[in-house]
Specification:
Blueprint lengths: L1 E5 L3 H12 L3 E6 L10 E4 L2 H8 L3 H7 L5 E5 L5 E6 L8 E4 H9 L6 E3 L3 E7 L2 E6 L4 E4 L1 E4 L6 H7 L5 E13 L1 H7 L2 E7 L2 E7 L4 E9 L11 H5 L6 H7 L7 E7 L6 E2 L2 E3 L2 H4 L8 H16 L5 H30 L4 H14 L4 H8 L14
The chain binds flavin-adenine dinucleotide.
The site of flavin-adenine dinucleotide has 34 residues, from α1, β2, β3, β12 and α10.
Length: about 375
């Protein structure tokens, strides 16, 4: 069997890993000109962690992880208003850069990756699908997988335009180098919130600092410039200095926060995977984990006896209910991560203080694990 996977991100690479080991011929097509390093910090746990274990990736991920020993909220003077020491119950949470997770998977994938290209068209016929790439070349494949993120091109080809559910926020992420700021922030995840705005920072190796900005905005139209200095420049803490170092908009991650909800995840010989059909958003904090879980489930179904149509239907039936649960969790979490009113900020600080009581951090972390615990059980052995 030959499969073309559009998108060499977390989901596409994980699927490639599984299918090539099942003897499939796999080729990946990736829009970026080269492998994308860095990105933003993610917490990686739950079903994706189980998949990573099966793939033998855990020693590498544990090497690349960052120790986050505290979550703390600060005011404009950098004074702590509440904090939570992260000790018990966190053994399975791996905090690392999205790029480091993707790199760890990519290093174990043998399939060729065609960088700097996307899918121009996909024509299905009874024996397969003819895929035309933007570089003018074509491929004959049995199946085409769209693992090309929340703004999926393959999804558009299969289903026409789809408008993801906008969660009312824009997100911007950047990694800067500044030894002094990196030392000041350290291995605590520090955050500052004012109604409608959230800025977070965490120190990385080599004097770097990962920055995350969330801004409430009712408009679902992404402006070309995130306007960080305008919106966050007067909030105090480390922000005036940090913003000086943030590069211009072309070099940072900037997007609307969305969830993707679709009736059908497949159409003939085309199937969607990861954020393309199931984006849960950063509020759910589970997207990379769910993308790996979905790739594993899809590979499990495709390598079982039967045809691709049945496999696609079983894959969606196994994944969609869990994704719905995680998406609902994500929507409930918005008010905790980016409170819209001052009283919500005070309530959040109170919950943090309660969670700081003995045993509280385990309860807190368990409450952040919305579902999918039984996904990684083979249906076909
Ligand atoms: C700020 C932020 C914080 C997050 N925090 C967490 C967290 O704590 N825990 C967690 O588990 N998840 C988190 N996530 C979510 C997680 O990063 C995504 O859900 C996950 O990466 C989805 O995997 P994917 O493979 O579907 O998409 P991606 O990893 O985004 O990969 C998609 C790939 O497709 C490529 N592509 C896009 N369009 C095309 C095209 N037209 N043609 C060819 N290639 C294309 C892209 O370049 C990319 O390489 C966070 C996301 C953000 C933005």
């Amino acid at each position: 069997m030959k499969v073309v996977i559009c998108g060499a991100g977390i989901a596409g690479l994980t699927l490639a890993w599984h299918l090539e080991r099942a003897g499939w011929e796999v080729e990946l097509v990736e829009r970026a000109a080269a492998f994308r390093d860095g990105g933003y910090m993610i917490d990686f746990y739950g079903p994706g962690h189980q998949v990573a274990g099966r793939m033998g990736l855990l020693p590498r991920l544990l090497r690349d992880r960052y120790p986050v020993d505290e979550l703390s909220y600060v005011d404009r003077h950098g004074r702590q208003t509440s904090h939570l020491k992260l000790t018990a119950g966190l053994e399975d949470v791996i905090s690392l850069l999205r790029g480091d997770l993707a790199r760890a998977i990519a290093d174990t994938v043998r399939a060729p990756i065609r960088y700097g290209a996307t899918i121009e068209s996909a024509d299905q016929h009874p024996d397969g699908v003819t895929v035309r790439l933007s570089d003018g070349t074509t491929r004959e494949a049995d199946l085409l997988v769209g693992a090309d993120g929340a703004r999926s091109r393959v999804r558009e080809l299969a289903f026409g335009p789809v408008t993801p559910r906008y969660l009312g926020h824009q997100v911007t992420a950047s990694i800067i180098t500044d030894p002094e700021l990196s030392r000041r922030v350290g291995t605590r995840y520090q955050m500052l919130t004012t109604p409608g705005l959230m800025a977070g920072a965490y120190a990385l190796r080599d004097d770097r600092l990962a920055l995350l900005f969330l801004r409430r905005d009712p408009s679902p139209v992404l402006p070309a410039d995130p306007g960080l200095r305008r919106h966050f420049g007067d909030l105090g803490w480390i922000l005036p200095e940090a913003l000086e170092r943030v590069p211009h908009s072309g070099e940072i991650y900037h997007d609307l926060v969305t969830q993707v909800e679709l009736e059908r995840w497949h159409h003939g010989r085309i199937v969607l995977l990861g954020d393309a059909c199931q984006a849960v958003s950063l509020f759910a904090g589970h997207g990379a984990s769910m993308a790996m879980a979905a790739a594993w489930v899809l590979a499990d179904e495709l390598t079982a006896p039967g045809d691709h149509a049945d496999a696609f239907a079983r894959y969606q039936a196994r994944m969609a209910p869990v994704i719905g649960e995680v998406q609902r969790f994500g929507r409930r979490f918005i008010q905790w991560m980016a409170p819209s009113h001052r009283w919500r900020i005070l309530a959040r600080d109170l919950v943090f203080r309660l969670a700081a009581l003995p045993g509280g951090s385990r309860l807190f972390v368990n409450s952040l694990s919305p579902g999918g615990h039984n996904l990684i059980r083979p249906h076909h052995v």
